[in-house]
Q: What sequence folds into this?
């Protein structure tokens, strides 16, 4: 089944890569890449490293109810997780991150995965906000795209409301989950499901007060502003004078498209989202393709290389990816 899911993801990526690259002239694309100034890629990498550091701080903040851990302790684990996402399908890096955290610190996988879900939800909410701001730089598509984004906001708002309720009323959430599991789940699955549910609710308690919610939200805004600056730095390599709002649009669309399941490293889906944003800003297709694909490489190569280094330093093997899946199951 997993092999079929992998091939389905590859097929989806091929379709989106075709949609991203259709209409470009490869001679102009190659010329744009050759004429790019590679020195501008260095600050782009620097902004990305800062982004990962802030992401690590946010995770340490979310993990406080479970265990106090420093940014230095968590940074290699976060990078290993990104490396897993970039090499393997189905965002297995999130499972790998939770597995390594349990191995090193004893934090239960279900509880740490709850904090990862909080990260993904706040990322999604901020990305939608960035898209709304960025659409002002592309008014010709704002009305149509605004309807789609409004629907997405409603879905994220509902998911966030459920999660905040779990955090603020854990006893009631546990009772409701126990009633549902005891009523509908087969008897042999009830005990493990209840155990996972209790740990998941425990992890959701990272957001126990408005102050915690504000801290996580503001750190997420900082993360994506740094990401946008990285997009701007790479744009300078191609002499693209894009407004900051336009960069926010490309950033948000390229990352929102990665929600669509595809091949590892979001090949195709990331590129289609980025191309959609660049085209909406009036960037020539061939130049936009050179920019977006270079941006993707800048995102992929440094963190993947660093993740492999940390993986070897931690004594992890590729077989630990399978163990991560089994432990999560």
A:
């Amino acid at each position: 089944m997993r092999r079929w899911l992998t091939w389905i993801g590859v097929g989806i990526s091929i379709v989106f890569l075709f949609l991203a690259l259709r209409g470009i002239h490869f001679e102009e694309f190659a010329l744009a890449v050759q004429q790019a100034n590679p020195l501008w890629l260095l600050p782009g990498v620097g902004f990305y490293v800062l982004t990962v550091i802030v992401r690590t701080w946010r995770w340490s903040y979310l993990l406080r109810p479970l265990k106090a851990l420093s940014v230095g302790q968590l940074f290699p684990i976060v990078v290993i997780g990104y490396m897993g996402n970039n090499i393997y399908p189905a965002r297995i890096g999130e499972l790998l991150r939770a597995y390594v955290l349990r191995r090193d610190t004893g934090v239960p996988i279900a509880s740490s995965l709850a904090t990862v879900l909080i990260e993904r939800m706040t990322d999604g909410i901020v990305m939608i906000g960035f898209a709304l701001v960025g659409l002002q730089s592309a008014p010709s598509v704002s009305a149509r795209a605004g309807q789609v984004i409004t629907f997405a906001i409603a879905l994220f708002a509902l998911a966030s409301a459920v999660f905040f309720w779990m955090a603020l009323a854990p006893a009631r959430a546990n009772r409701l989950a126990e009633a549902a599991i005891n009523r509908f789940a087969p008897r042999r699955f009830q005990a493990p499901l209840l155990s996972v549910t209790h740990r998941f609710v425990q992890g959701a308690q990272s957001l126990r007060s408005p102050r915690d919610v504000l801290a996580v939200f503001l750190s997420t805004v900082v993360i994506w502003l740094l990401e946008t600056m990285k997009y701007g730095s790479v744009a300078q390599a191609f002499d693209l004078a894009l407004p900051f709002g336009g960069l926010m649009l490309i950033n948000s669309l390229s990352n929102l498209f990665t929600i669509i399941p595809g091949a590892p490293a979001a090949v195709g889906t990331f590129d289609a989202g980025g191309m959609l944003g660049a085209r909406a800003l009036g960037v020539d297709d061939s130049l936009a393709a050179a920019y977006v694909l270079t941006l993707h490489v800048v995102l992929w190569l440094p963190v993947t290389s660093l993740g492999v280094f940390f993986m070897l330093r931690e004594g992890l093997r590729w077989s630990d990816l399978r163990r991560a899946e089994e432990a999560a199951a």
Q: What stands out?
A: The chain has 14 helices and no strands. The chain has a mean pLDDT of 84. Residues 33 and 290 are 6 Å apart (CA to CA).
